Structure formats: C-alpha cells, structure tokens
Amino acid sequence: MVDLAGLRFLPGHLLPQVQQALLAEVLTAVGETAWFRPTMPRSGRPLSVRMANLGPLGWVTDRAGYRYTPAHPETGAPWPPIPERLHALWREVTGWPALPECCLVNLYRGTARMGLHQDRDEIDLTAPVLSVSLGDDALFRIGGLSRRASTSSMVLRSGDVVVLGGPARLAFHGIDRIVPGSSALIPGGGRVNLTLRRVTPS
Domains in the chain, please, with CATH? Predict the structure, then answer.
C-alpha cells in the first residue's frame, strides 16, 4: 500500500453482526426511491455504479457537473438521514469535531468499477474522508496527489474501513473491480461502499 501520511487502513474493523445491522439500516433508509444512475459531466455517459446519498447533503454527477445538493436530482426529495451508527463510527475513527454531512452510497455489481479520482468537491478539504466496505471483495487502488503518481492496490473486504486524512486527503484512488460472489452479505450480491464526508467548514 502507498506510504502516504494520513492514510489509515483498518481491516475487519466492523464485526459481521455489526456489518449486517449497518447494512440493514442503510438499505432501509435508502429504500427504492433514493437510488439513481449517475452520469459523467458533458458526455452524459452513465457510471457503472448505482448511487444514493444519506445526510443533509448528497453528492451527484450529471451533465451539469459534480456538486452537492440537499435534494435528490430526479425526485426533488431530501436525502434520508445518516444512521447514528455511522455518526458513532465517524467519531470513533476520525476524531473530527464536526459530523459528516454526506454519506455517499455506491452499489457495485458485476463489472462495476470506479476510476482514479480525488474527493475535492467539498468546500472543507481539511476534514478526513471515511470509507466503509460491505459485501464483495474489491480491488482498491490508491496513488499520490497527482494522477501520474505511482499507485498500489490492495483488497478491501467486508467490514474494512479506510480513512483519508491529512496529506492523504486528496490522494487519487479508485476501485479496479469487485470479486462477485466473495460475500453473501448484500441481497442480490455485490458490494456497498459508504463514503462519509464533511462538505462545509466545521
């Protein structure tokens, strides 16, 4: 794994029973109406993941660009709240004094992937980013602060937690692929990734 200050990897941090309880809370909150298919700015090409958001702000991407919005881009409904269980995890592993304002929920199935990118659409770039893996294994790639920096990869398994803080806050990272069938946690199969972010200054 890349030796980058501020990068923390907590393998198996969530026990199986905690993973099941957390997943149930997230899927109940999302329901069937909060999912949407994101698209790339300008081209309108759909991403391979399905997305939803929890919290007062949600991250979306479509032809209008990358942005945070308090409402679903298609239904206009406010995003469901972030479960308290995730607030507790945020306080436990980040120690950040203000709570996250967005929990991005990404559902990976089949050949879904996420190209190398930075999390930099937030106003506050000092707060850490917290990522939780649930379900199928995923090949996670992380590099440095430029797209051309060397990268390394590692397998993220269900219950693993990753924190990008300090110098690692703007590290390029992505998901090369998932391993279908490596976990039975997600109904219908696949991987759910939860990304918690603070958007506005604390």
Answer: 7-197 (2.60.120.590)
